[in-house]
Structure formats: structure tokens, C-alpha cells
User: Which sequence fits this backbone?
DNA sequence: CTCAAATATGTTATATTATAACAAACGTTA
DNA sequence: TAACGTTTGTTATAATATAACATATTTGAG
């Protein structure tokens, strides 16, 4: 059986740094930040990222090729994700809205395709950036 | 003023090949397909892609780093895009659903961010692939 | 018409993101 | 404890995207 709960050493290191970050992190910036911990190669980062995504611990922001920690309990293993992205400061906020999630999970394509998963990215300028 | 309607030579070449394609095309596969027409470098492709996206003629499928022609009249200059993506055959279908589009365009984040644009990607297995 | 500004092109080089392939170590459990 | 799955370490390379600079073409204001 797959080890669903416990994280391996590298997985824990990568998750820690993503959780501590204020915004989305890119794979190579994670790599540079963990080289002191003995992780030397992109593969080690990407492997940990893949597993963490599979566990629903982190999400990939596709439009930015960057990764954020999961802050929501609604996105059951990343099957239904939504994010708000500021185009100015790059801030990413996970949207946890039950109505939205239900609406989209129930949405089905006319052409008969049954969806297993969705990812939604909203873009705009956040409150903080508007003041500047 | 910007030339909103007319396409330049390279833009037309790139748009043509994307429109003729049955599925999403990647930048380098476009490049290889137009080298006979005198386009030699990635820059030329990426520049054309950027402009075409700006005009709303094509869309980028973020989860695949690939490009499709716009088939919809609803996505006014790419401000509101939704796609259905088959995880087996890689087929991408643009979703043009007024209700969905209105629902999402009207959605606003609790934290006071006003959205200018969204992109939604649904994943599943298409009808055709289910039969196999 | 004509010249300046904006847009597009061509080109070389390089940055960034991601995966392939292989060998070794570790953990789990039958 | 042997076998299997998973994780690790490592080197190399593939795939995606942008920087920077020189030149050409188009467009529109005067």
C-alpha cells in the first residue's frame, strides 16, 4: 500500500519551505534554498513536488509554474482547486468557496465528458497593490 | 493605434497552423512545422503567439504549455476561458457556456479582489477514449 | 508626401523548467 | 530475511521560454 501519511525526508524538506513561504515558489528557487540540506539536483525537487501534489499537500499554479501549500480542506486531494492571483505582486490565494466548488464539480460538458478534476485561476490586482 | 484586425506574415502563418490542427500545439512543434516557410527561431514563434493571444485568436492551455485556436465568440479577448481536457488522448475542447461564463465573471473574492480575467481547465476522459 | 514612431522581423545566445536513465539505499511486510 | 516497492543520489539532456541587439516594414500625423 502507498504511504499516504508519512513524508520522506526530502518531501518534508520541500513541504516545509513551501509552507513557510509567503507566496508561490518555483522549483529551482526551492532547489537553491535547500542545497545546504544536501539536496543537489532538480530531480530531487521535482520528485518531492510530484508526491506532495499527489497527496494534496501542495498545488501547482499552472500559469506561473510555481507551487503553493494547500490551505484548504475542501480540495480533496487536489480534485477541485481555485486560486486568486494578483498580476502585480504575484500573490496567490487559494479560494475555498463551497458554492463555487459544488457548482463546478457538478458542471458537465455537453459533449458527454465526465470531469474528474478542475483547476480555476482568477487574475486581477489585489487590494494592497491597488493602493500603490 | 494598435493594428487590431490585420495579421502580420508570421502571425498569419502561426495562426493558420494552429487553426488547422486537430489538437493543441506546442511552440516548438509549431516551429518545426514552419521552418520551410523561413521561420527559424523560437523567438519568432513566441512573438507571434503572444500577439495572437492578445488578440484573442488563440488561447494557451496552461497545464499543457500548448496552444489552441479560439472557437468561441464568448471569450471576449481571452478574459474568460474554459476548457475540457482529456487526460488520455490530450484532446482539448473550448467550453462556451454562457451560464458558466456569467457565473464566474460575477464571482468575486471575499478578500476584496476584483477579477479581470479567469481561466478554467476541466480534466477527465473523453467519450472516445472511454470506449477503448 | 515624408519623416518619426510603432510594430514586426531576423538572429544569436542564454535562461528557465522539466524529464530520462541508471545505480544504490531504505522500509515494509509476507 | 528475502522480495518488493519506494526513495535517494547523480549525471546528462530535453523542452520551454526570454534577453538583447540590429534591421526592416508599416502607419499615421503633420
Assistant:
Amino acid at each position: 500500500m502507498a504511504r499516504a501519511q508519512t513524508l520522506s525526508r526530502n518531501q518534508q524538506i520541500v513541504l516545509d519551505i513551501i509552507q513557510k513561504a509567503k507566496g508561490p515558489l518555483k522549483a529551482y528557487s526551492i532547489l537553491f534554498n535547500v542545497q545546504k540540506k544536501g539536496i543537489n539536483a532538480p530531480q530531487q525537487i521535482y520528485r518531492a513536488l510530484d508526491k506532495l501534489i499527489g497527496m494534496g499537500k501542495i498545488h501547482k499554479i499552472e500559469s506561473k509554474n510555481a507551487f503553493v501549500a494547500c490551505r484548504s480542506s475542501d480540495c480533496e486531494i487536489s480534485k477541485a482547486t481555485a486560486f486568486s492571483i494578483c498580476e502585480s505582486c504575484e500573490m496567490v490565494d487559494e479560494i475555498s468557496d463551497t458554492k463555487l466548488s459544488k457548482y463546478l464539480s457538478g458542471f458537465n460538458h455537453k459533449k458527454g465528458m465526465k470531469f474528474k478534476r478542475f483547476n480555476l485561476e482568477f487574475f486581477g490586482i489585489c487590494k494592497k497593490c491597488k493602493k500603490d
In short: Residues 2-3, 8-11, 38-41, 43-44, 47-48, 51, 65 of chain A lie near DNA strand D (CB under 10 Å from a C1').
